[in-house]
Amino acid sequence: MRLLLVEDDAMIGEPLQDLLRGEGYAVDWVREGLAAQAALRAHDYDLVLLDLGLPGCDGMAVLRQLRARQQRVPVLIATARDALADRVAGLDAGADDYVLKPFELDELLARLRALLRRSAGRAEPVYEHLGVRINPATRECSAQGKPVTLSAREWAVLEPLLARPGVVLSRQQLEEKLYGWNDEISSNAVEVYIHGLRKKLGADLIQNVRGVGYRVAVQ
Fold first, then answer.
1. Which residues does UniProt assign to DNA binding (predicted)?
2. What are the pLDDT digits (tens) for 24-68?
């Protein structure tokens, strides 16, 4: 999944970007409100992690413009503004959740996962198909009842495929789940992770649709 991190403080933004990428998310990090608005116009995101105190254009203006365009991407505000009026204003402007700095990283990740599940319309965060079962909330995977350890990148490829068996995703769509816009992408990155998943979960689980992309077999 691809996230937009809007944070002007490098002491927070850099480790947070590393943490999210380590969890398997593709992350675009911008430090100004105007840059956030440009990114949101140019790209589709699964979630926005938004600071409010930004140079040039503050986070509330970013949020209001986003909602004015009827974009329903989940927004998690992460800010030091702890007044009740600020929290109420943020939620009323269209934020889906609000967490105060300094925050616990485990709590932030849990809130983020909850918003992603909610936006996907999943009450129970579990996918199961052809004997493969994954739980995005706990990052647990099993095949034929046996635990399987996946890397963060393997997870990022498997989850969107297993969520919609039979639906073909192009290599470009899968690359967007793996990388932010400034990341260097090797020409065979997706193929490498698909190969690793086949070795761990079975050669027939993920099918190559020639010239189009990949899908999880229907049966």
1. 124-218
2. 888 999 999 999 999 999 888 989 999 999 998 999 999 999 998
Are 46 and 73 in contact, with CB atoms under 8 Å apart? yes
Q: Name the H helices within the chain.
A: 10-22, 33-42, 59-68, 84-92, 105-119, 152-163, 171-178, 189-201
Q: Which domains does the chain have, with CATH numbers?
A: 2-119 (3.40.50.2300), 127-216 (1.10.10.10)
Question: For residue 113, is pLDDT > 90?
Answer: no
CA 14 to chain centre: 17
Spatial distance between the Cα atoms of 126 and 114, rounded to a whole number of angstroms: 13
Do residues 176 and 167 lie in contact, with contact meaning Cβ atoms separated by under 8 Å? no
